[in-house]
Amino acid sequence: MTKRDELPAPDKKGLSRRNFLLTGTAAAIVVKGGAIFCPTEAWALEAQALKPTTLRTLIRMARDIYPHDRLADRFYAVAVKGFDTDAARDAGAKALVEEGIAGLDAKAKAAHGVGYADVGWEADRVAILKGMEKDSFFQKVRGTLVVSLYNQKEVWPLFGYEGESASKGGYINRGFNDIAWL
Amino acid sequence: MAAPFKLDDDSVVVVIGSGAGGGTLATDLALKGIKVVCLEAGGRHEIEDFENDEWSNFSKISWLDPRTTSGSWRVARDFPGLPAWIVRAVGGSTIHWAGASLRFQEHEFKARTTYGEIAGANLLDWPVTLAEMEPWYEKAENRMGTTRTHGIPGLPGNNNYKVFEAGAKKLGYKTVSTGNMSINSQPRDGRGACQQIGFCFQGCKSGAKWSTLYSEIPKGEATGNLEVRPNSHVLKIEHDASGKVTAVVYADKSGTVQRQKARIVAVAGNSIETPRLLLNSASNQFPNGLANSSGQVGRNYMRHLTASVYAVFEKPVKMWRGTTMAGIIKDESVHDPKRGFAAGYEMETLSLGLPFMAAFLDPGGWGRSFTSAMDGYENMAGMWIVGEDMPQEKNGITLHATQKDKYGMPVPNVHFDDHPNDIAMRNHAWKQGAAVYDAVGAVRTFPTPPYPSTHNLGTCRMSANARDGVCNKYGQTHDVKNLFISDGSQFTSGASENPTLTIVALATRQAEYIAAEMGKKNI
Fold it and tell me: Model confidence over A42-67: pLDDT tens digits?
């Protein structure tokens, strides 16, 4: 287990809301200047230290590692944001991610002629990840995500998880034994 | 009132650790009028500090000092820097324990006699019997308010229990109930009844669950005989030329090294820190470590079999609601070699919140196989397996040759190889656990591997003969008469039950023994 305090804290304020003219085209994440934008979800993420294209690919990779179709991209963006924060502080952390993503893209280009984020099928992208799952880069990304994705309180209701209960008096009068289908 | 004792007061008993063993012993001695300084490595967090938030509370109270691992156990691969999941705070692991309070069985005190010679296992009978322990179990259950003892009703079953119970009954298991839990099912001892909050592992917000932090230590402090010193990390135990221990050296909150003199020292740092401290206290007179003439200090480390089974159903279970571990099947907790292994295991309900489930369901897992399981979280039920693992001499705690912690003390390495008996038992338990859930319509089951160890046992075991172990049946070390082992390190074998009740029973008995020996001026 990775120590919690070594991990990027999920930060719901990490994404800035912007008003976009929704064009009705595909819900892609676009790179513009020093930031990435998600027009359909109306959020943007300014890259501090990593290349914006790296952030975009990291988000794609995060979803491929922990694919939940019920989760919007913004949850994955929040989950990877800590890599950018760490990269701004630590050159080694920055190099690990930039080199890792560059390696990922090189493998994708060799196999499919496009960068990782543009490979069309999840199965093809997962095959690339499978080939590097023992590498320190993959291990670092997966080990971080398993906390930074699932520890977002905004994610919990989407799995039915109710979180804190003490302030509500526990479940003694709120269904601790309400199962009816047995 | 906390009673501040002077560092050069050599009349005090120094208890190291404030959990189930140390907290109980320190309180009992204080209640008997004996002056006690209890040194606790962690801080003091009261109930209001506990959070119904798994990771946040984990970082607040867990023992996260550096440790290394080796051996073939899967924990060394999945959690190489975190072999044990225990607490560093006043109250120790009684803050995050689940509350299961089970007596060991008669045959489990006679492991060597019952199981016979098993290759690779360093089995030994305990120097005490169940008959000898029964009155102490009685006292422990009474002070802890264990359900289904002393006329205390059982806890009501939550959703997770109802699935577990229905599956157990369909499968033909006979002994399924909400168990013996030291969680108030009705108000008792100044504490209220369980509010079915969940989050038993994050510290009980209602105080219904017994913990030395608020159930024992304040009673000891009220006598004026007990001083608990938090943020006091013990480095070394010193002795005189006669071989008696005389003082305890520790680093205080600021890192300043202090020396507390002592008439008696009792070590209760849990089964990794206790032997680590004895090994680190080696001297010219005791070159292999304090109380280690047998060479058994740090050896025979046990951690219970452990494994979990989670299952996904078609409809919601919401297993996180309510008491985490109030559910037990005891049918497999017998010695029946026909199953292909010696000794037995308990099956107990267990749930994790979504964040911990992600970390522990299948450590290292990713991709759709993993996430489709997580997608079924709301429809999941879960159980934990507590089985007796074999003591093996090679499994244990050693001081790292080069790596040191922030106090300059060598970090402990925890080595563990599963014994073939452990593996056979775990496979059996995974199969039976899945069968319980299949019996009530599980659509998918998961054989989840062990978590970092919560039950750490046996590294300073008690033995009738001084050459076989570290302490006698009262936890008094064979080599040093005024040095005691007061935690689960004393266990000669692991049994199949959660250890806390036995640790408390032994600590209560030890307090009586120490008081009597002090009275006779033997120590």
Answer: 999 999 999 999 999 999 999 999 99
Which residue, B58, B59, B54, B21, is CA-closest to B40?
B21
- Phi then psi for residue A83, to 5 deg, are -65, -35
Give the C-alpha separation, A39 to A21, whole Å: 8
**For A150, which of B52, B64, B355 is closest by C-beta distance?**
B355
Chain B, window 325-364: residues with a beta carbon less than 8 angstroms from a chain A beta carbon: 353-355, 357-359, 364
φ and ψ of B402, to 5 deg: -125, -35
Nearest partner of B395 among B309, B301, B472, judged by Cα: B301
- Whether the Cβ atoms of residue A16 and residue A46 lie closer than 8 Å to each other: yes
Write the pLDDT tens digit of every residue in B77-125. 999 999 999 999 999 999 999 999 999 999 999 999 999 999 999 999 9
**What is the pTM assigned to this prediction?**
0.95
Assess A123–B contact: CB distance below 8 Å, yes or no. Answer: no
B320 part of a folded domain: yes
Cα–Cα distance, B422 to B301 (Å, whole number)? 13
Is A121 an 8 Å CB contact of chain B? no
Interface of B with A in 82-101 (CB under 8 A): 82
Q: What is the 3-state secondary structure (H, E, C) of B133-171?
A: HHHHHHHHHHHHCCCCCCCCCCCCCCHHHHHHHHHHHHH
Report in angstroms the alpha-carbon separations of B458 from A149, A156, B5, B117, B204.
38, 40, 32, 19, 28
Whether B5 is in a domain gets the answer: no
**Domain assignment of residue B326, given as a range:** 13-519
Note whether A179 contacts B156, CB cutoff 8 Å: no
DSSP H helices in B145-261: 159-171, 217-222
> Token pair 């520890």 is at which residue?
A151
**CATH number for B413:** 3.50.50.60
The question of ipTM being above 0.90 is answered as yes
Structural domain count, chain B: 1
Contact B198 A165 (CB under 8 A): yes
